[in-house]
Amino acid sequence: MPRPPLLATLLLMLPATTWAQVTGVPACEAFLQAYAQCAATAKGPEIMRSSIAQGVDAMRSSYLEDAKRGNAGLRRLAARCPMEHDLVRTSITKNIQCDFPAAAAAPPPALDSEELVTEKVNAWVNAQNFIVQWEKFGKQLADYQEGYGRLPKPGTKIGAGAGYSFSLSDYDQLIERLRKAAAMSASVPGVDEAGARLLAMLETLNPIAKRLKRYRDTREFQEDGYALAREQHPAVLRGLQAATKAAVLFSTALSERELARDERLVATLPEGSIPKLMLQASLAARRVLREQEALEPKGDTKALATAVAALQAGNTALRDKLDATQPKPDHNCMRTAEDMDAMVGKGREIARGGKRTDTGNELIRAYNNAVDHMGDCRKALARRDG
Description:
2 domains; Four Helix Bundle (Hemerythrin (Met), subunit A); 14 helices; flat
């Protein structure tokens, strides 16, 4: 039985009522109209036009959710839509030939309060932590390429036990986190642009990944001899490569912003105080993570070893201060130091030639635990100091 056209199959999944609704924000409607125009005029296979159309629908659904929040949501959309219009247009038209009108010039944004900026940065950090834990794009790219390389040649007879090693599933949870951050009204220069770029890449790749996951799970490849897998290979490879690059740029922008902020803050704290020593250790821990993430498969580990030694020195000073303080600080303060000791151990293991993937994941978990305990420690110190 012939397979139904892919475009029709995918369009059946789109909500029928979304297109009838409007956001109430002219900049958003202009963006969605331009995006839809690109979907209608894109030159390429049906799956490409379908993917763009699904991106339009996903954006509209996200905007409608924000619009339901009243004036605050509408203000966020007024700031969000022009930026996403430019970013999505630039991203798509680099790889796809379509008619995608540019956004109208927007007025300069108003200054945001520190509280709103902090809230948005925390939302971006939440998305980044999810990437670190679950969406390692470099590994996904390598695994996909390895699996695709094992496909039999066209015309090969497909046996009943044949498989399709497609390791991707979907990016729904990460997209949800990125959309939440992008929807916030505050401006975080550099990070906002990098986050929106990653979001646009994933919204383009996600429908294809979902389709190929169903293709694998239903073993449809046994019927078409892997034809769809081969047809979609260029789009998946291009999408994964773009997402991998965008994720690195996003992580770098966020990390550099946070490091610069905390380096300014640490200079203002009292010398030898627990908050200063803890922040210094935190900065050292983040430098360890940065060096670990930058390691090539067989690259030199000297920079990592240096960063680990600096973390050990900083954490030792913090431990000595905690041990000497009476009454004893909250237990989460010492647990922070214990987590950083674990980071030192894992970092040293990697620097001496240990398993980089497994030990690297353990290093990241120790850091995330340290962040959680550090937050609770700071709250306890704030309550104590009144």
